[in-house]
């Protein structure tokens, strides 16, 4: 087979592969998406992804698209939803804000997910009415270093409850 015949048979397939790879969306749960930056340094996603994640230490907790554990605060309220963490608190406990696209929930009843309007006008995600946060001191996705912090912060369950040891 001539060189020209080989190129004309292989080149279209190679170009199609490159085009499809370039156009595909990244997997938000991939290791590359997870990274190792602290939670506060992560940009907001285009759309909100919440997932139930089973842990040995706390049972099933909610994580975001990058695998960071999400928390709730006893200082907040669920009925009606109210976020009290502002200023320095919001630096240590960045609020989980609703993204602009259609949200995805894996292992979480969509009826339990909502939002509360923060003092700055942003929309913070809630589960069971409880506002959700990340913990800036969690060092890697899946870490639960915020559990029990300041006697009022707890990893959140898929129903909005406090996570406890299984």
Instruction: Report the end-to-end length measured between terminal Cα atoms.
Output: 65 Å
Name the overall outline: globular
What's the alpha carbon Rg, rounded to whole Å?
20 Å
Question: What proportion of the residues is helical, as a percent range?
Answer: 10-25%
Helix-strand makeup class: alpha+beta
Task: Estimate the mean pLDDT confidence.
Answer: 80
- How many separate helices? 3
- List the uncertain runs: 2-42
Q: What is the helix/strand order?
A: HHEEEEEHEEEEE
Domain count, please report it.
1
User: How is the largest sheet built, in terms of strand order?
Assistant: 2-1-6
Please indicate the percent range of residues in DSSP E strands (runs of 2 or more).
15-25%
What is the number of E strands?
Answer: 10
Q: Major sheet: size, sense and barrel closure?
A: 3 strands, mixed
